[in-house]
Amino acid sequence: MKKRIVITGAAGFTGIHACQHFADKGYEVIGISRSYLSNLKVRTFTCDLLDKEKVSEIFNSYKPDFCLHLAGVNSVPRSWNDPASTIEVNFLGTLYLLEAIRKAVPSCRTVIVSSALSGTDHPYGVSKKHQEELVTDWAHLFDLQLMVAKPCNLIGPGRSPGFVSFLANRIIQMEKTGDKSAINISHLKNEREFLDVRDAISAYEVLLKKGSKNKTYELGSGKMTTLLEVADIFQTFTKEKLTFLETCSSSDTSPHVMDSKLLQELHWQKKIPIRNFNTANSYFLQINQLI
């Protein structure tokens, strides 16, 4: 009998990859998203997680074995523009999801995806910090099978809100329009930790199967990469000369390199390096199809 998994945020960058991954692995996938999903070959529901009655209805109807919670606001700039909505979506949306699980199927093994920026100095970081605290409390108070995953910046084929996808999109526009203007960037020496989204999803599957209740798992590549290094990789895939206008006078870094030791103890390893021809080239191929 097929194992059943609910994936929230199914229309997002990670969600689309996750639905495909678990469907290919033979799971019965139920995707939940606020956006209409027409191109995913899985059972889907258009549902805002703040609609707690509809969320409860889905879990009552399908009683999944697993849940991967990807939905939420994941933009720092948006969190500054609308902090209340960010807290509402990331905290209350998670609360209503956990309540649906508690009432309908408390045995459901659930991974809640947080962020490396949890707790940092902006409303988005605050929202993720409180989300993690909620998960810890609900796992303890109600004996729920909940785990938190904290990934670094995820990259991979398709559209994402991050720098790598932005840069690939900008190059395609340059090639189509001949626009050779400089690309605005905060600082080329800024460092970020990048992991391919497909490696992240394989880690989430490991956690759903073997992770320990009420534990937090960091997830990363173990290496910082400067934005200049990323730009150099993409320069090899275009004849256009990339030029940049730095908008900040000093560089910054991600909070820290994520420690994936706990996941590695469960026999997870990343497989796709950032300097991978197929990885980089697929940005152009897939993003180009969307323009």
Shape by Cα distribution: globular
What's the mean pLDDT score? Answer: 89
CATH 2nd-level architecture of the domain at 1-151: 3-Layer(aba) Sandwich
- The share of residues in extended strands comes to 15-25%
Fraction of residues in H or I helices: 40-55%
What composes the largest sheet?
7 strands, parallel
State the separation between the terminal residues, measured CA to CA: 41 Å
Query: Which residues sit in consecutive blocks of at least 5 with pLDDT less than 50?
Result: 277-281, 283-291
**How many helical stretches?**
10
- For the biggest β-sheet, the strand order reads 3-2-1-4-5-6-10
Superfamily at the CATH H level of the domain at 1-151?
Answer: NAD(P)-binding Rossmann-like Domain
Which fold name is given in CATH as the topology of the domain at 1-151?
Rossmann fold
Radius of gyration: 19 Å
**How would you spell out the order of helices and strands?**
EHEEHEHHEHEEHEEHEEHEHH
Query: What is the strand tally?
Result: 12
Q: Helices and strands: which structural class?
A: alpha/beta
CATH class of the domain at 1-151: Alpha Beta
Notes on the structure:
The chain has 291 residues and is α/β, with parallel strands linked by helices. The chain has a domain at 1-151: NAD(P)-binding Rossmann-like Domain (Rossmann fold), CATH 3.40.50. It is 44% helix and 18% strand. It is built from 10 helices and 12 strands. It has helices spanning 13-24, 52-62, 76-81, 83-104, 123-142, 163-177, 197-210, 227-235, 261-264, 277-290, and strands spanning 4-8, 28-33, 43-46, 66-69, 109-113, 146-151, 153-155, 183-185, 191-196, 216-219, 224-226, 244-246. A 7-stranded parallel β-sheet has the order 3-2-1-4-5-6-10, sandwiched between helices. Strands 7-9-11 form a 3-stranded mixed β-sheet. A two-stranded parallel sheet has the order 8-12. Strand 5 (109-113), helix 5 (123-142) and strand 6 form a beta-alpha-beta unit. Helix 2 runs parallel beside helix 4 (83-104), helix 4 (83-104) runs parallel beside helix 5 (123-142) and helix 6 (163-177) crosses helix 10 (277-290). The protein is globular and about 55 Å long. The N and C termini lie far apart (41 Å). Residues 277-281 and 283-291 have low confidence and may be disordered.
